[in-house]
């Protein structure tokens, strides 16, 4: 769901956009401290705890590990421990929330 956040003050587009904005914010808040897998444009994959994002879609992961794109499709290789990592939004290809992280979260389509 795309959410428009205006830089110069509150939106004058109506109540429905405000409610969708608050719903998007609630979903993001529900994902805080969940394990995420982020694929980047250069083929690397980072796995870590979702700590923060901003309006430019930059993402901060805690306890992050980096997996390099391997030529063998069956092996991910050894992870490199990064710790705290910032991923620029324009390098993000996809974001996945690990299913184990969602087991205790309701309303995000987790299958029990």
UniProtKB/TrEMBL annotation:
Listed Polar residues bias regions: 9-25
Domain Sm: 23-101
One Pfam family named in its UniProt record: LSM
PROSITE patterns: SM
InterPro entries, A to Z: LSM_dom_sf, LSMD1_Sm, Sm, Sm_dom_euk/arc, snRNP_SmB/NAA38-like
Gene Ontology, cellular component aspect: NatC complex
GO molecular function: RNA binding
Stretches the record annotates as Disordered: 1-25
Family, per entry: Belongs to the snRNP Sm proteins family.
Protein name in UniProt: N-alpha-acetyltransferase 38, NatC auxiliary subunit
């Amino acid at each position: 769901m795309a959410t428009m956040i205006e830089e110069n003050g509150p939106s004058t587009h109506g109540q429905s956009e405000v409610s969708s904005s608050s719903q998007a914010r609630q979903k993001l808040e529900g994902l805080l401290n969940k394990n995420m897998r982020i694929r980047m444009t250069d083929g690397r994959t980072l796995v870590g705890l979702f700590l923060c994002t901003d309006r430019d879609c930059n993402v901060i992961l805690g306890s992050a590990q980096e997996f390099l794109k391997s030529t063998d499709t069956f092996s991910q290789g050894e992870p490199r421990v990064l710790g705290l990592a910032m991923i620029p939004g324009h390098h993000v290809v996809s974001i996945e929330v690990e299913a184990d992280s969602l087991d205790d979260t309701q309303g995000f389509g987790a299958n029990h």
